[in-house]
Amino acid sequence: MLGRGKRDRELDDAIRELAEADTLAFGGVGFAGQTLPPTAAYEALERLLPDRAEELRERLTTILADGSPAGKAYAASLLGRFDAAAARAAWESLTEDRGELTTFVGCVMGRTTLGEYARDRLRPDED
């Protein structure tokens, strides 16, 4: 019973971290490859799949409605780990969002709007 309570607190903490995120990064950033708190939260939630997918779906839907721009991007990405159709619908709903977020790909930092980021996610990969 104690283990379940701790896992629920960790889930709540990870959801809160994603909802408030101001930076989007999948993997380490900078020369040291530091894992940012929202990235660690995303990875913790990802480890709950597929066992707690439906519970996560509810929480991610809340983030998509009320979270920060980076939080919404994390939520749509995580949704894509277990429901591709729902993730696509989430990305489509975000294409006009003008909220700004910071992105990291390794050492490269960027700035974009959530709408532009969402449109990029919806583009087919080009070879």
- Taken in chain order, the helices and strands follow as HEHHHHEEH
Specify the helix fraction band: 55-70%
- Distance between the amino and carboxyl termini: 50 Å
Radius of gyration from the alpha-carbon trace, in angstroms: 14 Å
| Strand neighbour order, sheet with most strands | 1-2-3
Tell me about the largest β-sheet.
Answer: 3 strands, mixed
Number of domains: 1
The fraction of residues assigned to DSSP E strands is 5-15%
Low-confidence stretches: none
Number of helices: 6
Q: What is the average of the pLDDT values? A: 93
What is the number of E strands? 3
| Global structural class | mainly alpha
Shape: globular
Description:
The structure is a single chain. This protein has helices at residues 2-19, 37-46, 53-66, 69-79, 84-93, 114-122; strands spanning 23-25, 100-105, 108-113. It has 127 residues and is mainly alpha-helical. The radius of gyration is 14 Å and the shape is globular.
Features:
127 residues, mainly alpha, 57% helix
What's the short version?
This protein has 127 residues and is mainly α.
Write the layout of secondary structure elements.
Blueprint: H1 2-19, E1 23-25, H2 37-46, H3 53-66, H4 69-79, H5 84-93, E2 100-105, E3 108-113, H6 114-122
Parallel strand pairs: 1-2
Antiparallel strand pairs: 2-3
Helix pairs in contact: 1-2, 3-4, 4-5
